[in-house]
Design brief:
Blueprint (H helix, E strand, L loop, with lengths): L10 E4 L6 H31 L6 H28 L5 E3 H34 L4 H4 L2 H27 L8 E2 L6 H7 L5 H34 L4 H29 L8 H25 L2 H13 L1
Parallel strand pairs: 1-3
Antiparallel strand pairs: 1-2
Helix pairs in contact: 1-2, 1-9, 2-3, 2-9, 3-5, 3-7, 3-8, 5-7, 7-8, 8-9
Length: about 300
């Protein structure tokens, strides 16, 4: 709750990465290139899936939605970060900070549940192939995506409410390159018990539940793949899972490292680069991971280019 003698801040200053102008310039070029690849890669995946009838299947439906979320997740953070890297004053208005908190937590949870839905899709395809067309119907796929959005909305609203209970009087310097609820809680001068409870509960509930779906799915998938007699069949089954497992490992690992570990001064630098990993790097890697090793995607791209 706001303190009676507290003058609430109207803007926050962002710490960024370094004060060295040379390093800032190099980071600007690196993150700009990463963002351009992210935009082109994710838009390309979405357009390719929509334009190619051969890719109109549940797996690619989820992939298109994941690409859409990655596109916006990166856009919430990266453009502002690029501007700050080239500016002497690195700041964000209070309203802009609230918007970043809501959108980041909204889209972040959607991504986790989309990854869980993709794991379930692989489970049905590999373990129950005869039931796949019935189980993974268009209606079921739509419900899974809608449920992911509902979970994300719940988290976004919860974290925004959490931020509204915080007061910021003595300091407005966020030790990060964008507004996130965790450093804001550490910065607040008010009682943060409720906010910490909301943060821990949300991270545990949404993170653990979605990761449990992934874990249980692969606990069934791996023995099924190993029981396949054909070496070619095993390779094909594994190839549809390795890309997903790579993305899951990066996304879940980085976020769990940040939100479920105790905060300490010695870890703040590691936290910052963990956040870079899943806000900047992962949205760029996802379309590359899912396309470069996917024969169906490469074949669809070749067909589309021949048409053009």
């Amino acid at each position: 709750m706001a303190q009676s003698n507290c003058t609430q801040v109207t803007e926050f200053s962002l710490a960024g990465f370094t004060e060295d102008p040379v390093i800032q310039g190099n980071l600007f070029l690196l993150f700009l290139l990463t963002y351009l690849v992210t935009i082109v890669g994710n838009l390309g995946i979405i357009i390719l899936i929509r334009a190619s009838p051969h890719l109109h299947s549940p797996m690619y439906y989820f992939l298109a939605n994941l690409a859409f979320v990655d596109l916006w997740l990166s856009t919430i953070v990266t453009p502002k970060m690029l501007v700050d890297l080239m500016s002497e004053k690195k700041s964000i208005a209070y309203a802009g900070c609230v918007a970043q908190v809501f959108l980041f937590d909204f889209l972040g949870i959607i991504e986790y549940f989309l990854l869980a839905a993709m794991a379930y899709d692989r489970y049905v395809a590999i373990c129950h192939p005869l039931l796949y067309p019935l189980v993974m119907s268009p209606k079921c796929c739509f419900q899974l995506v809608s449920g992911s959005c509902l979970m994300g909305l719940t988290n976004g609203v919860g974290q925004t409410i959490s931020m509204s209970t915080l007061s910021f009087c003595s300091s407005s310097a966020i030790d990060l390159f964008f507004c996130d609820i965790s450093p804001l809680i550490s910065l607040s001068t008010s009682n943060t018990t409720l906010s910490r409870i909301i943060l821990t509960t949300a991270a545990s509930l949404f993170g653990v539940s979605s990761s449990l779906v992934v874990l249980l799915s692969y606990m069934a998938i791996i023995p099924t793949i190993l029981s396949i007699n054909s070496a070619k069949g095993k390779r094909k089954a594994f190839s549809t899972c390795t890309s997903h497992l790579t993305t899951v490992s990066i996304s879940y690992g980085a976020s769990f490292f940040t939100y479920l570990n105790p905060i300490s001064d010695s870890r703040r630098g590691a936290d910052k680069w963990a956040v870079v990993l899943y806000t900047v790097v992962t949205p760029m890697l996802n379309p590359l991971i899912y396309s470069l090793r996917n024969k169906e995607v490469k074949e669809a791209l070749r067909r589309l280019l021949k048409i053009k």
